[in-house]
């Protein structure tokens, strides 16, 4: 395993290719564990969300799990509307299978959505849909139903509550309460203009459907943690932020691709992947979209 374990090169071409490269080991391990043990392993690994805020993944998973209710949902956020950012698209093009594997590892009891952004994401969505179809046909989704949802151009679409609105067929405007309290297709709590009728299959009860929203890169790390263990993950990055992070470098670069680096990378480390070493000089200006050091 190297620092580049998330961005397969060359890209994974099919499910057979994925399995030949060691895919689904994390899924097999997840099948041997109960949901609490999966959360514990992710907690031990110290995985933080890669969608922006760096929230502790295991803490969020526990909140959703403790939410009770009959139906839970898991949503993968691949909206990626941040200008000049394409790390999630690079991830899904290189290996959509590991993201699906991460979703299935986090076994929810019902439906899941896998959103992508309309327009910017057209090249990635078919690959993702194909990965979902192939894994479903091979019986790897544990009977779960996954749906790929494309959304509008609006930046706000990436905000997790707006994302849920889009999956429900509405405009990308954030709802009032967080997804673990007011999830997908929730019929409770009833919040005036946000309330809606019972979902098919519900019989007179109102449910909040606690929903987990995680970034695509966050979920992609999960099978690797389950396959290789929390200690392996902690051998990279820092004590507070273990693992690696995918950085996007744009501009006048030789390799206009996302690079991967240890979490809280140095600016020069990211640049050295994208441009020839001789061209990496003193950093004149840096506009980071995530924790980075110059
Ligand atoms: C305006 C706005 C846009 C956002 N866009 C994205 C996005 O494109 N992708 C993403 O994963 N998170 C985005 N987020 C953060 C999400 O609301 C949410 O915190 C994240 O998907 C949680 O995943 P994580 O815990 O794995 O990081 C955005 C937040 C805001 C306020």
Low-confidence stretches: none
CATH topology grouping: Rossmann fold
Give the count of structural domains: 1
Helix-strand makeup class: alpha/beta
Number of strands: 6
Mean pLDDT, rounded to whole units? Answer: 83
User: What count of helical segments does DSSP give?
Assistant: 11
Proportion of residues in extended strands = 5-15%
User: How far apart lie the N and C ends?
Assistant: 27 Å
Give the CATH H-level superfamily.
NADH-ubiquinone oxidoreductase 51kDa subunit
Radius of gyration: 19 Å
CATH class division:
Alpha Beta
Strand order of the largest sheet: 3-2-1-4
Label this structure with key terms.
about 290 residues; four-stranded parallel sheet; two-stranded antiparallel sheet; 6 strands; binds flavin mononucleotide
Would you mind describing this structure in some detail?
- This protein has a 4-stranded parallel beta sheet with strand order 3-2-1-4, sandwiched between helices. Strands 5-6 form a two-stranded antiparallel sheet.
- Helix 2 crosses helix 9 and helix 3 (about 35-45) runs antiparallel to helix 4.
- It contains 11 helices and 6 strands.
- The protein is about 35% helix and about 10% strand.
- The model has no long low-confidence stretch (mean pLDDT about 85).
- The protein is of the alpha/beta class and about 290 residues long.
- Bound molecules: flavin mononucleotide.
- The site of flavin mononucleotide has 19 residues, from strand 4.
